[in-house]
Amino acid sequence: MDSAGKKVRAFVRVKPTAHFAQDMIKFGPDNKSIDIYIKKDAKRGVVNNRQTDWSFRLDGVLHNTSQELTYETVAKKLVSEALIGYNGTIMCYGQTGAGKTYTMTGATAEYRHRGIIPRAVQQVFRAIARSIDSFITVRISYLEIYNETLCDLLSTMTSSGASDVQMAVVDCPQGVYVKGLSIHSVSNEEDALNLLFEARSNEYYASSVGYGETNRIIAEHTLNKNSSRSHCIFTIYIESRFRDLSDVRCVNSKISLIDLAGSERLSKTGSEGQVLKEATYINKSLSFLEQIIIALADPKREHIPFRQSKLTHVLKDSLGGKCNTVLVANICGEALHVEETVS
User: Fold this and answer.
1) What DSSP letter does each residue of 101-147 carry, written as one string?
2) Which residues are annotated as a binding site for ATP?
3) Binding site as annotated, residues
């Protein structure tokens, strides 16, 4: 809890499946808890002290929910508060193939399949259209962290461009910013979505030249044929100018929408070569992020090691403090993945 009485909210979204492990995963009657039971493995010997029962309290369980209901539950209030000056962060994390990118970005073909990012953009510009006592400007950026390298997904340059070399995370009195990251002014919803969705190539994102989602690096392994191999941070910067009698008051806020790369067990994904190297970087940075979350929750900790990785450094002013934070854990409900679900 911070000084304003706000807290980090946590939700679980379950990927739809015809083989849901209903004997192993139970939802509470209030839809705000999950109980998980794993049978003991007799092959491990006579003495087996492994824990077999877990219970988790949450702010909500999203099971068989639409993209619209997910947004209403997870993001709508956070975006509304960003429009009056509170920073907001929504982070999707979980196992590879559990639906993080679908939750955060969704599909472009039909509106009902659109995820949190395009819906947040729409909410911001609809609020601007209704506003009569303020002048609001909106800018956006889209940062990718791949193998501890910072990449600008809204840059027209290829990954070998000089801009990548110059990018660095910088601390300043106003917070953290990424030197070299392009920030684009957008005047309407269409402009913002064009930057997010514009397609330039059907090849692997790593080799495409264009904008946003068409630039993101993906790869194929046994858990997911279109696995995102990088952490992506889409940021909406909002500047509101209010006229108060003869004075003009300026309020700045930002919404960070984060699609983390999937955590994975190398034994299950069958990764090798470059994909294995990527997985090592992913798991390491997610481990550092976990350490940061634990440190922030400990009131006795005086030092939070944000600089352990590029991901945690970039998120220094997007976690805790006066920032509204929502964590969405994406899980698979099948028995095969129950240990990853617990993790």
Assistant:
1) HHHHTB-SSSGGGB-HHHHHHHHHHHHHHH-SSEEEEEEEEEEEEET
2) 94-101
3) 94-101
Closest CA to 264 of 327, 339, 333, 314: 339
Q: Cα–Cα distance between 313 and 169 in angstroms, integer?
A: 7
The single-letter code of the amino acid at 225 is K
The 10s digit of each residue's pLDDT in 155-194 is 864 444 444 457 999 988 888 889 999 999 999 999 999 9
The full DSSP string for 158-187 is -TTSHHHHH-EEEEETTEEEEET---EEES
Domains of the chain, first to last = 9-342 (3.40.850.10)
- Contact between 79 and 124 under an 8 Å Cβ cutoff? The reply is yes
* pTM (predicted TM-score): 0.84
Q: Give the per-residue pLDDT at 210.
A: 40
Amino acid letter, residue 131: S
Record the tokens describing residue 138, joined without a space. 């909106």
Q: Which of 330, 305, 315 lies closest to 228, judged by CA?
A: 330
Other beta carbons within 10 angstroms of residue 114's beta carbon come to 21
Rounded CA gap, 119 and 192, in Å?
A: 11
Would you give the distance in Å from CA 327 to the centre of its chain?
Answer: 8
SS3 assignment, position 5: coil
Give the three-state DSSP class for 272. coil
Neighbour tally for 270: CB within 10 Å: 11
Residue entry with tokens 């990118």: 101
Residues 6 or more apart whose Cβ sits within 8 Å of residue 286: 93, 260, 261, 263
CA dihedral 153, 156, 160, 166 (to 10 degrees): -70
DSSP code for 80: H
Residues written for the chain: 343
